[in-house]
Amino acid sequence: MQTITNKIIEQGLANKVFRVSQLKRLVKGSSQRRYSLANRAIKSGELLRFQRGLYMLNERFRDYPCHPFVLAQALAPGGYVSFETALAYHSWIPEAVFTIASVVPGRKSRQFGDEKMGIFSFHPLAIHRKYFLELVNRYQIDGQTMLVADPCRALLDLVCLRKLSWEGMDWLLEGLRIDMESLAAITGKDIKILELIYKHKRVKSYLSFLTRELRLD
Q1: Alpha-carbon distance 63 to 29, whole Å?
Q2: Rounded to whole angstroms, how far apart are CA atoms 15 and 66?
Q3: What is the tens place of the pLDDT at every residue in 47-92?
Q4: Which of 62, 72, 161, 187 is 20 to 30 Å apart from 87, CA to CA?
Q5: How far apart are CA 86 and CA 187, in angstroms?
C-alpha cells in the first residue's frame, strides 16, 4: 500500500471525496514530494483523481462505493441533483437516467465524464438566489449525504432548463411518462413555493397552467 493511501485511511478520509488542500495537510514537506506520492498512488490504482484537484480512494479501500450524487456535489459545490436524474430517483419516470444532472450557481453549463463514475452535467438556472434550495432535501445513503430536488422542483427545473411553454399534459404523461398519480401528489403549498423560485415569466406561466390542470388554484 502506498504511503499516501495509508495517511488518507488513518485520517478517516477513506470514504470521502477530498481536495488537494486536504492532501497538503496530510503530506508534510514540499509540493513536489506531495505530487510524487500522489502520482505513485494514482499509477498503482489506489488513488483516483478527478478534475479541479478532487481525489478519492479506490473502492477496495472504502467501506462502500461512492454514490455518484456525492461526487456530483464535490465537482460543483453548492449545487443539487435535479432534472430527470431526480425524477428517476423519486421513481416519477420509468426510464433509467445515465447522466447525473445538477442545478448549480453560476452562469455556464458544463459537463464532466469519468470512465468509472459516469457522466455529470451542471446547469445554472434563472432562480432567485434566496429560494435556491427550496424544495431541495438532504438524503443519506451509506452515511453519504446528498442534496436532491423534490420531484415537483425537479420537474419545474427541467421546464426552466428547456425553456418550455405549456402545450397541455401530453409532454408530462406521454413524453416523460409521469403517472397522473404522481402529479396529483403536488400540493398547493408546493405551488406557492415554486411561484417564488423562478425568474422567467415562461416558467411562471407553465406553472399557472399546470396548477389549473391539477385543480390547485
Answers
A1: 30
A2: 7
A3: 999 877 899 999 999 999 999 999 999 999 999 999 999 999 999 9
A4: 62
A5: 18
